[in-house]
Write a structure and sequence with these properties.
Layout: H1 8-22, H2 28-35, H3 39-52, E1 55-58, E2 63-66, H4 80-98, E3 102-108, E4 111-117, E5 134-136, H5 141-149, H6 152-163, H7 168-171, H8 175-188, E6 191-192, E7 202-211, E8 214-224, H9 231-259
Helix pairs in contact: 1-3, 4-9, 5-8
Length: about 270
Amino acid sequence: MFSFAPVQSVLKALRLLTEVNRCSVATVGELHRRTGMPKPTIVRLLETLIEAGYVVRDERMRGYLVTSQVAHLSSGFHGAPMVIEAARPWATALTRQIKWPCAVCLLDYDAVVVRFSTIPDSPISPFHATLGYRLNLGGRALGRAYLAFCPDEEREVLRAAMRASAEPENNSLSDEDVEGMIEQARRRGYTERDPAAEPRNSATIAVPIKLGERVLATFGVTFFRAAAPNPEDKARIIHPLKKAAANIEAQLEALSQSMGVAFQGEK
């Protein structure tokens, strides 16, 4: 038995926060469909959560995201929002510097999924939108960056998933192909999209974002092939990309130590 009736506004706010946490980028329309709450109520609650520091509005992506402040609520917070939060300013700054769009991806079984993109900030993006795209581990730079740099035990699990995958980019790779790709990636410190993969007029270079031995996300830049025909041109993308990734990793390490957050990644 409760002493008092539940405070409905608190229940609504907690439900809304839960739904925002489930989305890569939550819009008012999407939250309305998920909760059934009136849109004016959703806006008021979101503004309250922003004031409390649990939610942030991303004007470029036209939606709402949780912040690392939700880690203070409970162990229910997973590391994914913190990775995106840490990467966002560095990715935006990198696109401002080199003009090409960046993407940050998280693992999803036999692929990675684009969870943040700076396409809205790029004047010369090869694509109009990529948020939510699944990129195979076998053929895409952002997927290969995860496969090449994750721990050996995890890679064995991922390889089994790739062999059972319906995607030719995953299931057609032999163990020798994968070993050669990994050796090259670790020697260079980055991965590239399979040149035979469509679209062939663009290319992607990607690196892992790591905390210790764990790969938390992958981070890459996409550009038109004709704009970087030789190693010197690619170097002007690779070096800033690696520097930005190192800054993201340093920020994640500091956040992890200060907040005691265990990064569990996406399920």
